[in-house]
Task: structure prediction
Amino acid sequence: MDGLHVAVVERRVATLDVALALDFVADPRFGGIASFIGRVRDHNVGRSVTSISYDLFVPLALNQFRAIAERALAEVGAPLKLWIAHAKGDLAIGDLAVVVAAGTPHRDEAFRACRLAIEAVKHESPIWKQEHYIDGDSAWSEGCSLCEDDRQFTHAHSHAAHGHDR
Amino acid sequence: MKTSIVLFGALREADASGAVELDVPAGSTMAELRELLVAHLAAQAPQVSAGLVRRCAFATDEEILHNHRKVPAGVALAVLPPVSGG
Result:
């Protein structure tokens, strides 16, 4: 797909860049740009979070991002430019964890492409979040299984039922 | 055959080297590989829950290999715990 940028950015090297993402998806044909920015927040499920670490399987994550983009393109049925970037490593509160931007001719297509992409990044890509708490404890987030039997089970139920972020 | 499996997320704690190597009978499926990994970790890393391992998927650098797929020879695999990106 032309007009696609996918990246995994090591936090020690750089922060995610929203302005670059919005520039990248701009196009004379496009009147609609939608973006999603995920930032590290200071609490989860009633616990005070002081920082988080992201572990990624980078080659597969980039492959999945490209496949997600193809799905978004087919789904919106319109010209599309898409930016998907996720941070890796140790992040502080307020750091950017993920940036998705979609440029399309009209707003409905942009919103749909952006929503599809961020949901797929969260639920299908090989990314793992470890939270560090104020009491010194750490825990890996429960997450969403990529195992097909488990997916059939969990997808028959609400995502809220297995307790992860929506 | 020897198959190397790279660990991610919560499973990194199972082996400080970041990977485990299993002896896998030729022709095994990914579902059978998962049970071999459950048994290996039960012996080598009892702090890891078998329930977690049973919710894991396996992948190459390029794709997720579902339960019915055969374990590819001579390819390093990754074990993917439930994901939590974004």
User: Anything to note?
Assistant: Chain B has a mean pLDDT of 97. Residues 23 and 71 of chain B are 11 Å apart (CA to CA).
